[in-house]
Structures are given as structure tokens and as C-alpha cells.
Amino acid sequence: MRSIATYLLGYLVVHILFISIVEAFFCVDLKLLALGLIVLVFGVAVVNSKKIILEKSDIIIVFVLAFLNIYYTFIELRGLIFFKMTYVLLLAILLSKVILPNISLKSYLGKIDTIYFIVLIGLVIEYLILLFFGDQILADLFMCHGEETGVRGYIPQSNITREFLPHAATGGLNSIMLGSQTATQLAVIIFVWCLYKFKASDKKKHLALGLLAIFMLILSPSFTSIILLFISIVMIYLLNLSNNFKEKIKNFYKMYLVLFVIVLLIYLLARLFTYKYFGLNYIYDEYIVKNLIGFQYFDLKDILFGIPVDRQTRSFFPSQEISFLKQLTRYGFVGIGVFYISIFYYMLRALRYRHITALVPNMMVMAIFVLGNIHYPVMFNMGAMVLFVLHLAYIIYQGSDIKNN
Questions:
Q1: What is the DSSP string of 299-335?
Q2: What would the pLDDT profile of 269-283 be if each residue is shown by its tens digit?
Q3: What is the pTM of this model?
Q4: Which residues have CB under 8 Å from 60's CB, separation 6+?
Q5: How many other CB atoms sit within 10 Å of the CB of residue 159?
Q6: Is residue 298 situated within a structural domain?
Q7: pLDDT, tens digit, for every residue of 198-222?
Q8: pLDDT on residue 181
């Protein structure tokens, strides 16, 4: 079983790094390959069922997912629209039973290190290509635009850094995952991951990789990724502060330092918002008030299970940039609630074992992925989706009772 788990984890690394590239290069839809992956893992679990330990929470979540898929497919007649969310939770649960109990955690986390290292090097190479050759060579190479297959190829993007650095690349990064804003969100995630690796090992190579990730973010930023970076810094700072409170705070000036950092970050976020938009009042009117008004067109069933197909042609919300609203329109509070609450539950359950070194960075990465859904759902891209699953599987395993058996 150990060798099977090792080979399966190796395949997942290849799947994460290359599935989007193969899709865009050959213009083929590989959703069946993703489905085959979960069937393969399920088959391994069935063959080794005597060694698989199921918990009540896992069983309940799987049954609820099955109900929602049946409801959306056969009652609402919308098809398998809940497939990706089901895929994420089900694959993570299976991996936590099949791979993690049969492989060393150091090896598992090492594979995640490898993925982030390759992605970061890929960002550097991509930027150099954009800098010296432009984005047309990549757009021609990964030319698929999804008219027939639903696969999106390389997307030429604007780069606001060029407004400040005259020798910067004209185009923005897509990343090895080939998705709009995937590169910038992954740069934030790599920074957080490497920062915790440096804190745990004190190896300067992790610090260097983290700073390189921030440098790539500066060279090709996005509005969402900058906000995620600010939120990540605040979360890291507050976590370190909570550790200090466990001991007696000898210097009172630290409290003033906390207040100063919070005020500074709020000010910078306000300046960032007003740089892109006309002002905070405009943001309040356009993105809060008008979107809240959209709920007046929902009845109770719409709120719970989403809008039927015959009404989805109408836009209930003026803003088309908030992914959470799109998900709410499609799945309702029940659909998105089952998905996100399940993830939150597994994170809370794992917090019982706070002494685990890699627990916090895995949770931080998952939080960044989820918060990124406010605008662009990177965690549902073909490659990044399985990467998120690896982090979630680690959290599920660490919070389960498998280790005690």
C-alpha cells in the first residue's frame, strides 16, 4: 500500500502541473481524466477497504453531496453543476484515507514544496518570455479559447506595473495553471508557504523563494492578489501576536505597535480601493447596496437552492466580478453552505492539534484560496483545484482519528 500511495502522490504532482498546459496546447477537454482520477483513488480505497477508517462527518458530507447532485440533476434539471465542489470534497476525503496514512508526512509536504518551486520557476520563465518576446508567442502556443471544449488557453493580460516601471513586461502573468489571476494568487500563496517553511527550518533558501514570489507579484500584480497579500500579512501578524499573549507581555509598547499596523493596513487598503475606483462611496453604492437589492427577486427556494435555468439568463446583480454572488445564484445558500462549511468544519476539527508544525501554513493557504473566490475562483481551475485538494486532505487527516488507530 505504501508504494501505491507513493506512485499516486507522484501522479497528482504531474496532474497538477501539466493538465492545464496539455488542455490548452492540444485544445482538448480533460474533465474525463479528472473524473478518472477520483475513480482511481476510490478503487484503491475499495480494494483496501479493511484499512480505511470512515468517520461520521465524512459519511454525512458524502450523503449530502450525493443528495445535492441528484437534486440539481434530476429535479431541477440543471445537470451536474455541483460536480466541481463535490469533486474537491470527495477527492480530499479519499486522499486523506488512501495516501496520508501510508506515506510519511515529510514526503507529502515535500511534494507540495516541489509543486510550488516549479510553479515559481515557471512564473520567472514566463515573465522573461513576456519581457523579451511579448505575449503573442504564448498565446499562439496555447491557442485554445474554449469555443468547442470549454478549455481556456493563454489569456493576454494588462500589467499595471508597466505604468511605473518602463522596462517591465507589457503583459501580465497567467502562470503554469493557465488561468486569469492564477499567477498572482499563487504568488501570494507561495510567499506564505515559504515564509512558514523558513520559520520552521531557518533555511535561507525558503526566505529567498518567498521574496522571489513577492517580487513576481510586484512585476505582475492584480487588485485581488494585493488584497489577499494584505489579509495574509494581517493573519500572520495576529497569529504571532496570539502566541505572544500566551506569555507575559513585558513591553507595553507592543500594544501600540499592533494598533499602528492595523491602522496602516486599513489606510493602505482604502488608498488601494480609491486608486481603482472613484471612491469609497462609489464602492458602497455599486458593490454593496445594488447587490443587496438583487435579493428582492429571490424567493425562498431561490435563496436555498439557486436560480432555475430559465431565469439564469437574467443578471440579478450589477457586479459580475464577485464570484461568491455567482455561486449563490447558481447553488443557493444550501449548495455553497455545504461546501464552505464542510471546509471550515475540517479546519476547526484540526485545530485540536495545534502543535502540528505544518498545520498553520496549510490552513493559511486554504484560506487564501477560499478568499480568492470573492473575485476569481482560482481554486476551481483544473490544476489549482487538485493543489487545493492536497492541502485540504492534509487538514482532514490531521484532524481525524486515523492517526490514533
A1: -HHHHHH---GGGTTS-SSS-SS-HHHHHHHHHHHHH
A2: 666 666 666 666 666
A3: 0.88
A4: none
A5: 20
A6: no
A7: 988 878 899 999 999 999 999 998 8
A8: 79
Residue 200 lies in a domain: yes
Least confident of 5-9, 222-226, 253-257: 253-257
What percent of the chain clears pLDDT 90, i.e. is strictly above it? 38
Buried (b) or exposed (e) across 312-349, using 16+ Cβ within 10 A? eeeebbeeeebbebbbbbbbbebbbebbeebbeebbeb
Reading phi first (left if > 0) and then psi (alpha if -120 to 50, else beta), residue 100 is in alpha
* Beta strand extents in 135-290 (DSSP E only): none
Length reported for the chain: 405
Confidence band for 129, pLDDT divided at 50, 70 and 90: very high
Number of domains in the chain: 1
Among 351, 304, 334, 399, which residue's Cα sits nearest to residue 85? 334
Question: What's the domain range around 83?
Answer: 2-221+321-404
182 in a structural domain: yes
Give me the mean pLDDT over the 169-177 stretch: 85
Q: Residue 169 contacts by C-beta under 8 Å, 6 or more apart in sequence?
A: 127, 130, 131, 159, 162, 219, 220
pLDDT in tens, 74-125: 988 888 889 999 999 999 999 999 999 889 999 999 999 999 999 999 999 9
Residue 23 inside a domain? The answer is yes
Instruction: Tell me 172's DSSP state.
Output: P
Whose cell is 435563496? That residue is 303
Q: How far is 304 from 167, CA to CA, in rounded Å?
A: 51
Segment 364-376 mean pLDDT: 90
**Would the CA dihedral through 402, 196, 352, 336 be positive or negative?**
negative
- The CB density around residue 235, as the number of other CB atoms within 10 Å, is 17
Residue 248 has pLDDT above 70, yes or no: no
**Beta carbons within 10 angstroms of residue 242's beta carbon:** 9
Per-residue b or e along 186-211, where b marks 16 or more CB atoms closer than 10 Å to that residue's CB: bbbbbbbbbbbbbeeeeeeebbebbe
Separation CA 402–CA 405 (nearest Å): 5
CA–CA gap between residue 214 and residue 190 (Å, rounded) = 9
* Angstrom distance (rounded) from CA 226 to CA 98: 37
Taking the C-alpha atoms of residue 144 and residue 141, their distance in angstroms, rounded to an integer, is: 9
